[in-house]
Amino acid sequence: MTATEGKWGDLAARAGSGIAMAVAGIVLVWLGGPWFAALSVLVGTLMIWELAAMTDQSRPREALALAGLAAICMVVVLYGQNPFLMPLLVLPALAGLLRPGRPMRFAFAIYAVLIMVACYGLVAFRDGYGMLWIVWLILVVVVTDIAGYFAGRMIGGPKFWPRFSPKKTWSGVVAGWIGAAIVGAVFLVISTAGRDLIWISALLSLASQLGDIAESALKRKAGVKDSSALIPGHGGLMDRFDGLLGAAIFMLIVAQLTDVPVVRF
């Protein structure tokens, strides 16, 4: 294998699985309603399973049980459409936290809450503010990942945070910010969004990168390379959606602090 092949050896698998996920995601985001909710339930359930299995590799059945609990809680909350049901979103985290002798139980609980809240929040955001914001969010995360991937391999340079993410470089991080800002600029042209969207897109890109770093730190502590082997070229769903998780949490926090306008094409 040549150096070039080693550097780009995972590109075909990453591109193929990435395109497949993007097409499925766009269709279900466009359909919205119960279809997008079903996607969120599926992704959230599998991520909780990966998280539980990764943080306690000695109890695979317990991981399945926690994933099943997460699925039930998300279905009840998302399809019940009652705000009083929202506390159910923390049940998987509590179940893992209160399990005697479970390793990394605090890390599991924190990350499990983030997964559940993000899955619920994306559906609520799609229903409340329309499809365009979700499309923007996904594109910012995707462009951040793509720009960082190519810049990191073509330019390289100093590492951004080697203690937690040894592969992420400053060149890739900055390229992600620039790519995200370009996405924001494009949306200014094709939608009724305000000019602040450019710098907000860059901040969202940073949130996405921090989500990636947080998951890398979690994997290093758990002693695993990938969260699972579900997706060719990407590892598991947590490996693929860690950036989306960070971006979704950031967007939900912003929505609580400011008025989010409904934007249209």
TrEMBL record:
Keywords assigned by UniProt, alphabetized: Cell membrane, Lipid biosynthesis, Lipid metabolism, Membrane, Nucleotidyltransferase, Phospholipid biosynthesis, Phospholipid metabolism, Transferase, Transmembrane, Transmembrane helix
InterPro entries assigned to the protein according to its UniProt record, in alphabetical order: PC_trans
GO biological process: CDP-diacylglycerol biosynthetic process
Record EC number: 2.7.7.41
Catalyzed reaction equations: a 1,2-diacyl-sn-glycero-3-phosphate + CTP + H(+) = a CDP-1,2-diacyl-sn-glycerol + diphosphate
Pathway linked to the protein: Phospholipid metabolism; CDP-diacylglycerol biosynthesis; CDP-diacylglycerol from sn-glycerol 3-phosphate: step 3/3; Lipid metabolism
Topological relation to the membrane, as annotated: Multi-pass membrane protein
Cellular location(s): Cell membrane
One Pfam family in the UniProt entry: CTP_transf_1
Residues forming coiled coils: none
Gene Ontology cellular component annotations, sorted alphabetically: plasma membrane
Domain of life: Bacteria
GO molecular function: phosphatidate cytidylyltransferase activity
Membrane-spanning intervals of the chain: 63-79, 108-125, 131-151, 172-191
Recorded family membership: Belongs to the CDS family.
PANTHER family given in the database record: PHOSPHATIDATE CYTIDYLYLTRANSFERASE (PTHR46382:SF1)
The protein's name: Phosphatidate cytidylyltransferase
